[in-house]
Amino acid sequence: MEKTFLMVKPDGVQRNLVGEIVNRFERKGFKLAGAKLMQITDELAENHYGEHKERPFFGELVSFITSGPVFAMVWEGENVITTARDMMGKTNPLEAAAGTIRGDYGITVGKNVIHGSDSPESAEREIGLFFNENDILSYSKQDSEWIY
Ligand code: GTP
Ligand code: MG
User: Fold this and answer.
1) ipTM for the complex shown
2) Is 115 a catalytic residue?
3) What is the pLDDT of residues 123-137, one digit of tens each?
């Protein structure tokens, strides 16, 4: 089954949104495969956001994402990469639809509460950056026959 990497950013942790965000993906029917509260190092931040190295806001992005703990997660389910991005809403919270996470909880693009992988390639890369294989669990849940 498809997996994606999602992360509550430092603003979401500070604003007590971890439970709310986990709740949304659980209730959707996705399965949590791994999770940890962690402090991102500069090295990991620069690697994770490597595609944005040349952007003017790169320094700001790295200092923000390392400014406090993040809640890193691996979620599993059919089409979870695209569906999680839809549930997150547009990058700029002011453009994100109401009912999405960024639409409901954010105001500025630099503090937009959550990160999610944008493709199968980035999901694989980001899961590998943040998690050891042993920390991603494969298990069955009794609700799956009521979801699929
Ligand atoms: P992520 O899931 O965090 O990767 O967001 P995204 O895929 O919706 O957007 P993208 O990868 O293009 O940008 C990565 C992050 O950079 C965004 O989530 C924003 O927090 C941040 N960002 C994007 N544009 C700006 C900007 O103009 N200024 C600042 N400060 N941050 C920006
Ligand atoms: Mg991105």
Assistant:
1) 0.94
2) yes
3) 999 999 999 999 999
What's the rounded Cα separation, in Å, for the pair 7 and 86? 15
CB-based contacts of 66, cutoff 8 Å, min separation 6: 39, 40, 41, 42, 45
Catalytic hit among 8, 10, 115, 126: 115
* Contact call for residues 76 and 31 (beta carbons, < 8 A): yes
CA angle 108, 11, 75 (to 5 degrees): 105
Nearby residues of 20 by Cβ (< 8 Å), 6 or more positions away: 105
**Which ligand has the minimum distance to the alpha carbon of residue 8?**
1
Alpha-carbon gap, residue 129 to 50, rounded angstroms: 12
Mutate to test the pocket of ligand 1, among 9, 11, 61, 70 (most ligand atoms within 8 A of CB): 61
What spacing in Å lies between the alpha carbon of 116 and ligand 2's midpoint? 7
